[in-house]
Amino acid sequence: MFFKRHKPFVILGITIIFLVILTLYFQQMKREELQNELSKIELQDVRIDLGTSKGKLGTAIFGVIRNKGNSTIKIATMSVEFLGDAGEVSKVHNFYPVNNYSFSDSLPLEPGQAKEFGFPIDEIVPENWGGGITAKLIDLQFK
Questions:
Q1: Reduced to 3 states, what is the DSSP secondary structure of residue 22?
Q2: Could you give the CA distance from residue 135 to residue 143 in angstroms, rounded to a whole number?
Q3: What is the pLDDT of residue 113?
């Protein structure tokens, strides 16, 4: 009696539960795929230095990004944590060492290629910055 009366709601509930489980499964697969691809990309020699970056003279983050994977990267997102004197994170900022929307360098990063990058930071650093950073890749978009 209950099932006959509420049959549409039961079917709707089962369908929603199935779709939620399916969505969570695909999200997990996507996260694992991203982590696998991130492990194939290396950030090398990331450092703070004085120099010219994007036509500006000043303090900048320099480094090299190397694609050891099999896919062409059109956008790579690098998260940089600016550390205070005690080693605490005082600010986090994202940079794009590979960006197909960039006016200065819109070339993708092909498999086996490496690319030098530099980003001016004089206007970004927090007041309590102790001079240290940590950098890691957090996202990739492929061609």
A1: helix
A2: 24
A3: 95
Class for domain 41-142, per CATH? mainly beta
- Of the candidates 132, 41, 42, the one whose C-alpha atom is nearest the C-alpha of residue 80 is 132
CA distance 84 to 45: 21
Per-position b or e across 90-121, b if 16+ CB within 10 A of its CB: bbebebebbbeeeeeeeebbeeeeebebbbbb
For residue 70, which amino acid is it?
N
Q: Which CA distances in Å does 126 have to 2, 28, 81, 82?
A: 63, 35, 11, 8
Q: Record the pTM.
A: 0.77
Task: Give the full edge-to-edge strand order of the sheet including 114-120.
Answer: 41-53, 56-67, 114-120
